[in-house]
Amino acid sequence: MVTDTAILEAVGEVADPEVPVLTIADLGVLRGVRHEGDEVVVTITPTYSGCPAMDVIRHEVELTLNSLGVDGRVETVLSPAWTTDWMSESGKAKLVEYGIAPPTGRGAVFLSLTVRCPLCGSPDTTELSRFGSTSCKSLWRCNACREPFDHFKAL
Amino acid sequence: MNDLFVYTLRLGDDALIAAQRTAEWIAAAPQLEEDVALGNIGLDQLGQARSLLQYAGQVEGADRSEDDLAYFRDERDFLNLQLCELPNGDFAHAMARLLYFATYQHLLYEELRGCADEMLAGVAGKAVKEVAYHVDHATQWVLRLGDGTEESHRRMQAGLDALWPYTAEMFESDDLVRRLAVAVDPSTLQAEWERRVMAVIDESTCSRPVASYQHSGGRTGRHTEHLGYLLAELQHVARSHPGATW
Question: Closest-CA residue in chain B for A127?
Answer without folding.
Answer: B33
